[in-house]
């Protein structure tokens, strides 16, 4: 995300919590160094979740040490590090996610907000990207991409309204049953 975006957000009277990816290499490395070194951490929060045979340990730490970060990130007040250790199917992996924030808050606040964001990502974007193969679509001209995306959103909403949680399974069960589809819509 460009630095100018933070300026637009702050000038509109809002705050931001923005994920920092590898395309912001310098900022990504700076946050990693600050949050993993002996720099003071303003707060930290750790939680463990066991769900469907997968164990995840998350530690969220927040740092106010922003002196070495470019002032072009308008409104920046805190750096957030989410350290995840995930054990799934006998394999363990370690992940780090970094965020910048214009808010002054604690690790519990960020933990809850980031988890809610991931929940949205997993419940909508993942379904559209993977199950409905939106990223692989060859539809690229005029209004067609937006129209197809809207149709997919409607389909997802209809399936969820009819209490289907697994979209791939719902597509298999419903796709060739015109009477069932008709009953779901009415």
How would the blueprint of this fold be written?
Layout: H1 3-11, E1 17-20, H2 25-36, E2 43-51, E3 54-63, E4 78-88, E5 91-101, H3 107-131, H4 144-161, H5 167-174, H6 178-185
Antiparallel strand pairs: 1-5, 2-3, 3-4, 4-5
What does this structure look like?
The chain has 186 residues and is of the alpha+beta class. Helix content is 43%, strand content 24%. The protein has helices spanning 3-11, 25-36, 107-131, 144-161, 167-174, 178-185; strands at 17-20, 43-51, 54-63, 78-88, 91-101. The protein has a 5-stranded antiparallel β-sheet with strand order 1-5-4-3-2, with helices on both faces. It is globular and about 65 Å long. It starts with a helix and ends with a helix.
Largest sheet: 5 strands, antiparallel
Please state how the strands of the largest beta sheet are arranged side by side. Answer: 1-5-4-3-2
N→C terminal distance: 42 Å
Number of helices: 6
Q: Looking at the structure, what is the overall shape?
A: globular
Beta-strand portion reads 15-25%
Number of strands: 5
Q: Sketch the topology as an H/E string, one letter per element.
A: HEHEEEEHHHH
Rounded to an integer in angstroms, the radius of gyration calculated over CA atoms is 21 Å
Structural class: alpha+beta
Ranges where pLDDT stays below 50 over 5 or more residues in a row are none
Helix content: 40-55%
Q: What is the typical, i.e. mean, pLDDT?
A: 88
């Amino acid at each position: 995300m460009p630095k100018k975006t933070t300026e637009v957000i702050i000038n509109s009277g809002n705050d931001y919590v923005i994920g920092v990816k590898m395309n912001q290499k310098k900022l990504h490395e700076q946050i990693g160094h600050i949050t993993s070194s002996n720099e003071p951490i303003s707060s930290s929060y750790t939680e463990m979740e066991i769900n469907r045979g997968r164990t995840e340990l998350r530690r969220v730490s927040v740092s106010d040490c922003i002196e070495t970060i470019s002032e072009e990130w308008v409104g920046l007040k805190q750096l957030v590090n989410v350290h995840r250790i995930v054990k799934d199917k006998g394999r363990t992996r370690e992940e780090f996610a970094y965020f910048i924030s214009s808010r002054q808050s604690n690790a519990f606040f960020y933990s809850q907000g980031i988890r809610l964001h991931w929940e949205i990502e997993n419940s909508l974007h993942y379904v559209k990207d993977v199950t409905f193969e939106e990223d692989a679509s060859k539809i690229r001209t005029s209004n067609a991409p937006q129209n197809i995306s809207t149709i997919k959103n409607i389909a997802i909403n209809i399936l969820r309204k009819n209490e289907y949680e697994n979209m791939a399974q719902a597509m298999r069960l419903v796709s060739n049953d015109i009477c069932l589809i008709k009953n779901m819509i009415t």
